[in-house]
Design a protein that fits this description.
The complex is a heterodimer of chains A (431) and B (145). By secondary structure, chain A is an alpha+beta fold. Chain A has three domains: 168 residues, Alpha-Beta Plaits (2-Layer Sandwich), CATH 3.30.70.270; 64 residues, 3-Layer(aba) Sandwich (MutS, DNA mismatch repair protein, domain I); 146 residues, Dna Ligase, domain 1 (2-Layer Sandwich), CATH 3.30.1490.100. Chain A is 37% helix and 20% strand. Chain A is built from 14 helices and 14 strands. Chain A has a five-stranded mixed beta sheet. In chain A, strands 9, 10, 11, 12 and 13 form a five-stranded antiparallel beta sheet that branches. Chain A has a three-stranded mixed beta sheet with strand order 3-2-4. In chain A, strand 7, helix 6 and strand 8 form a beta-alpha-beta unit. The two termini of chain A are 48 Å apart. Chain B is mainly beta and 145 residues long. A seven-stranded antiparallel beta sheet of chain B has the order 1-2-7-3-4-5-6, with no helix packed on it. Chain B has a domain of 97 residues: Umud Fragment, subunit A (Ribbon). The longest helix of chain B is centred in the first third of the chain and has 5 residues. Chain B is elongated. The chains are: A alpha+beta (431), B mainly beta (145). Chains A and B meet through helix 4, helix 5 and strand 14 of A and strand 1 and strand 4 of B. Strand 14 of chain A pairs parallel with strand 1 of chain B.
Chain lengths: 431, 145
Amino acid sequence: MFALVDGNNFYVSCERAFRPALKTRPVVVLSNNDGCAIARSNEAKALGIRMGAPWFECRQLAEEHGVVALSANFTLYGDMSNRMMSIAAGLGPAQEIYSIDESFIDLTGIRGNLAKRGQDVRERILQWIGIPTGIGIALTKTLAKLANHIAKSADRKPGSYPPELARVCNLAALPAADLDAVLQATDVGEVWGIGRRIAKQLRDEGVVDVLQLIEIDPATIRRRWSVVLERTVRELQGQACIAMEDAPPPKQEIAYTRSFGQPVTSLYELTQAVTEFASGAGAKLRLQGGLAGQINVFIHTSPFRQGPQYSNSALVPLRRPTADTPVLVRAAVRGLQVIYRPGFHYIKAGVMLLDLQDGTIEQGELDLEDEPIARGDLMGTLDKLNDRYGRGTVLLASAGLEGKQRSWAMRQNLLTPQYTTRWADLPVARA
Amino acid sequence: MNSVCPVNAIAFIKGEKLLLAWVEGTVPAGFPSPAADFQVKRHDLNDLLITHPAATFMWQARGFSMVELGIEDGDVLVCNRALIPKHGDRVVAEVDGDFTVKQLYKRNGVVQLRSGNPTFPPILFRDGQTMTICGVVTASIKLFR
């Protein structure tokens, strides 16, 4: 038995927890550089603002209806996510954190009324941190995800599902006939693991709702589609095929890419950006205790803007696998110098660390050159300083200084304070 | 003592070296610390102030309506949202879209938010009006320098 606990409109809910005045307004949270809507309040959804909609497209509609737009405050969302996850973990013996706002809970061995238990946990999350959630409970992870969809839809769109399934939905407790009715009311496109392409193929074959899908023999699914879809169908039929994952496996590649706040033309500015991105990627790499064997650097112009277009990338192999920021930055900047062409308006750059390996394994090598200079724990110290005093406290000089020179820095004009992580940003209570 | 040599023993022959296994580790000299068995955690303010880490949030008080109840302008308020607010608790509440810190009055079906300063009137609630309490203030931190 599994539960999926998911924060409703999570980023918006985090913002509302610290700005109660937003509770009665439509709210959207925008992606980096205030580009696209990545979270919408129910009111904003009702206005027809789509997920991922570019802000410049819906701006006029939003302004007419008094929509409040905010820059994504990932520091705040990360802290609220930690709190939510720690409370949700009380639902069962094991938890898999699936994304910033979703976690699966293994309910194996839990007796009693699971829906009641889910309601208690939902109530606790709401009271303790002010975030509304939906909880889906079912025999398999795919069904739990579906139950979560039902719990949220029944809450947000009355009439879509029976009202008693709103907020907390335990599909395993439904009588067979009721379960069939609910599955029949659900489009195949809502199923976890069924993307837009597969959903269209299924609909073209006359398989429109989930009930129709689970009536197909899994062997047929495997023959006509894939073993992946077969697994999904088996899960929907109540046969658990996807186990809990305790810890995500170490990443195979680490990317650090950003769009610029405004277009950049000079190698000088790009060098600053690439230095910062390579430094950020290095810190992520050290966090997982890895070493990188190759580094990829890319730059490109904006396909949405007029003018000449250019896009290129360079793969720079590293002499020895490393997690040392100056070495990574030197390699990335060398790559940048090779691909840079003057006369273009660059809008995005990125650094990817590839060929990652475990830091504890060291390849022996012939003694052909001098040993690398021993740096002691320089990188560890650097990470600790930046962790304790804030990102960018100690950086390579080629990253440039904050302020006017960094024209490429991310645009976050509508950023809210870091209410829970910075003393200077404490929310104010009037006395 | 009997001078019988065990079969596997290394014969001790005068003048030759006896090979001994290297043992990793150190042998401490001097007296062991008499406090070694009594090592405990030093005072940590988190233990005193934060009983529910996930549910504890901080606000900064601004204003003078609570001075007689120990909350002064600029204090950092430690709020525990896991506690059920009782009559007499200092609470952070949402009133008209803003946060406010007041004392909860809850007697004989009457709910009010009272001030700790006679010059500030209590906040009254009419029927049907909702008041959201964000958390119970469990501590007010003052920094003197």
